[in-house]
Amino acid sequence: MRIVKNNVFLYLLIIFFAFLFFFRLGYNSLTNWDEAWYGSIAREIIRTNDWIRLTWNGYPYFDHPPLGFWLIALSYKIFGISEFSTRFPSAFLGLLSIIFIYKIGLQIFNKKAIGFAAALVLGSSVWYLIRVRSGNLDSTFVFFYLLTIYLALKSSKNFKWFPLVGLSVGALIMTKTIVGVSIIILIVFLNYSQLLKIRKNFIYIILAILLFSVIVFPWYIFHLKYYPGFYQRHFIEIGIRSKTLSSYFNLYINKPFYYLHMGIRKWYFIWLFSVAYLIVRFRFIKKQVIFLFLWSIIVLYPFLTSEKTELWHMIPVYLPVSLTIAYGMYDFLSLLPYKSAFYAIFFAIIFLIQMKNFWPEIIPKSKYISDEIDISRKAAKYNKTIVLDDEFLPVAVFYSGRNIIQIVYYPNISNHTLVDLYKLKYKDLIVIARQSAVDSLTNAGLAYKVLEKNNSFLILTK
Q1: Per residue in 205-216, pLDDT tens?
Q2: Domain boundaries, the chain
Q3: Which residue among 171, 314, 431, 441 has its CA within the 20 to 30 Å range from the CA of 321?
Q4: CA 202, chain centre distance (Å)
């Protein structure tokens, strides 16, 4: 009974967010980018049993490391291939992230209420919830980021935990590579006094490095050796988005802050107030607040210097934002009588407003199968090369279970239109196209046969 009482905040978080993350998780079909794309990569792992060389649509894939795809593949092994199993690892790790941000708040400030409030902020930030309930890499990345911070906090008090920090950083790097590298600054900040005692802690430092190396180096060494374009694609084009050193001094402030506002909604202005309050009240001289501000700068600054920021890219920023709001408002409301009651009421009200506003955006009312998915499934039964004259390639690949050629990449046609394709001599080929494209064949006097159709698409052959 005492254990339950001591952990009542944690149990409440687990019960509520387990429902929020998993309720009707498999109702919606996989989206074109990135769910169907990543799901197809994971399915190829199961089909080929090759866990090192990732492939998509018949080509090598190495934009991102394999850990996130391994987790989806394991989910497929357990639950079978479905929308639910594609999203399960993301939802499960999202729930663990709620637990760990609670524990981090408790570790830093020694207040369960602060950890609880931080979890409410993160869990009710609409784009965090959207990505947790989808089959992508964001939730996996956030989990290993929070796990690493938690372990770094533990190792700052007992350095025997430090080897696990190396293990967790390895998993973080194997999820999104360069995006997670900046966490090393935070690890050093939390453990600098222990790291300076090299002779005393040498064995733990070496173990951390070894565990990191075992997790990360084999996959990278293999790909650097066997794929000539790997370094350029993985590290330059995807990792740093082809940015130059000078570009890190060019600021694009409006878009990242706009996206942050869109992603956390009502919490945005409360975050701005919390930051201003902590500065005005000189709370920034506390080590805990310095840590939160440093964390915020580390994860936010790269987006402030990029023109290619997307809304969901900002999710790692939500982590220090959540803790800053939780602590800033706790310290501010401590100036009032009945501070605990005001604190609880304040976060409960904002949380409920958030939930009311975005519930229809998050939870599907019923299952729905799009015309894109329907026609892709119909195409699967034909033992012929499939050509797609549209933009939903990842969905077509996933739901047909086949490799597909998009017409814009079909060889030996100049304008990459359906008419140009039908002028070629080919055998054993079918085309998925819209009615408007099919009308162009009629106008050009080219014969075709309709094999399947629905409200939006047709499957054609000669």
Answers
A1: 999 999 999 999
A2: 2-362, 371-461
A3: 171
A4: 35
